Amino acid sequence: MFHHGFGHKGHRRGLRFAILFSISESPKNGIEIMKEIETMSRGFWKPSPGSLYPMLAKMTEEGFIRKREDGRYELTSTG
């Protein structure tokens, strides 16, 4: 599902979509998001912490997601 279109240009857009999709069902921490993306892609793609956490920070800044006190990320009304 997520293994197409993730070249250099599509990677960030794909990661953003995968994060939103992953936390749409329930809040998750970074490790849970990485594992969910790997599962959704049937093992084809597992984002590295070096790409995931900066994207989570950017999406938090933009107001799409928020980090809860327990360290899990959840969608905002914007996301």
Assess the beta-strand content as a share of residues: 5-15%
User: What radius of gyration results from the CA coordinates?
Assistant: 12 Å
Class from helix and strand fractions: mainly alpha
From the N-terminal CA to the C-terminal CA, the straight-line distance is: 21 Å
Describe the main β-sheet briefly: 2 strands, antiparallel
What general form does the structure show?
Answer: globular
Number of strands: 2
Helix content: 40-55%
- Overall pLDDT: 88
Give the helices and strands as they follow along the chain.
HHHEE
Individual helix count: 3
Instruction: Point out poorly predicted stretches.
Output: 1-10
| Strand ordering within the main sheet | 1-2
Tell me what you see in this structure.
The chain is mainly α. The protein has three helices and two strands. The protein has helices at about 10-25, 30-40, 50-60; strands spanning about 65, 75. A two-stranded antiparallel sheet has the order 1-2. A hairpin with a 5-residue loop joins strand 1 (about 65) and strand 2 (about 75). Helix 1 (about 10-25) crosses helix 3. The longest helix is centred in the N-terminal third of the chain and has 15 residues, at about 10-25. About 15% of the residues are buried. The model is unreliable at about 1-10 (pLDDT under 50).
